[in-house]
Amino acid sequence: MIPETLSVVERQILANQFRILSKMENDPQAYETKIEILENGFTEKYIEIFDLNTEEIPMDICEETTQILHMFRRINTAIEALSHIEKTELELDKLHFEGFDAKRDPHYHYLQYLINTNEWRDFNVIYSGGEYQLSKYRSMLEYQIFLLDNDHYDLKKENLEHFIDVVINPTKKSAFKLVV
After folding, report:
1. Which residues is 100 bridged to in the sheet?
2. Per-residue b/e over 148-172, b at no fewer than 16 CB within 10 Å?
3. What is the pLDDT of residues 113-137, one digit of tens each?
4. Cβ atoms within 10 A of the Cβ of 17, count?
5. DSSP assignment of 84-119, as one string?
6. Closest C-alpha among 53, 23, 21, 48 to residue 36
7. Which phi and psi (to 5°) does residue 49 adopt?
8. Nearest one of 106, 78, 90 to 168, comparing CA atoms
9. Can you tell me the distance from the alpha carbon of 65 to that of 107, in angstroms, rounded to the nearest whole number?
10. Predicted structure pTM score
11. What DSSP letter does each residue of 20-69 carry, written as one string?
12. Long-range contacts of range 45-48, CB-CB < 8 Å, 24 or more positions apart?
């Protein structure tokens, strides 16, 4: 969040930091404008001082993003273990990770960071144009949490079928079942 106001002390500290950077960089002029904005308190121009692209992403969004990624990693591992015949029997396209809405969803920005830092390099699709994905992921995540709460860690074909059913009919969460 770009502040609407800064105290005189905050402005002076930042201006001094930019002076130091201007001595260390090849392009000192780039910092002169920032120093002038801060020294004069031009609040409308603070956006040029704070080069942040997004608002702070809350912890619950970061955690949910990571849980969704873990869920899809488990699903992909289970799909790889299926036989060719089993794969043809399932609508596996329903279990495809489609990313997050880049325009409206803060999950997108956190995922982009995770991919760029190689923590989740196996997820390269990060943008989708719709809002449906997040509600789909949350419905699937409820089933994932149900399975983990019941110490059910290895997914089987029947679990994948239930994930698909949850995607198609998100109100069926009361019918969660364990497959042993």
Report:
1. 127
2. eeeeeeebebebbebbbbbbeeeee
3. 888 887 787 777 666 666 678 889 9
4. 14
5. HHHHHHS-GGGG----EETTT-HHHHHHHHHHHTTT
6. 48
7. -85, -45
8. 90
9. 6
10. 0.70
11. HHHHHSS-THHHHHHHHHHHHT-GGGGGGT----SPPPPHHHHHHHHHHH
12. 46/2, 46/3, 46/4, 46/6, 47/2
As a residue count, the chain comes to 180
Whole-angstrom distance, CA of residue 103 vs CA of residue 120 = 21
CA–CA gap between residue 136 and residue 172 (Å, rounded)? 12
Beta pairing partners, 128: 101
What confidence tens digit (pLDDT) does each residue in 35-80 have?
Answer: 999 999 998 888 888 866 557 789 999 999 999 999 999 999 999 9
Q: How many alpha carbons fall within 13 Å on the CB side of residue 112?
A: 14
Which pair of tokens denotes residue 55? 């608002």
Residue type (1 letter), 133: Q
With tokens 């709460």, the residue in question is 149
What spatial distance separates the first Cα and last Cα of the chain, rounded to whole Å? Answer: 49
What are the structure tokens assigned to 131, written together? 């809002």
Kindly report the number of other CB atoms within 10 A of residue 118's CB atom.
Answer: 8
C-alpha Rg value of the chain to the nearest Å: 24
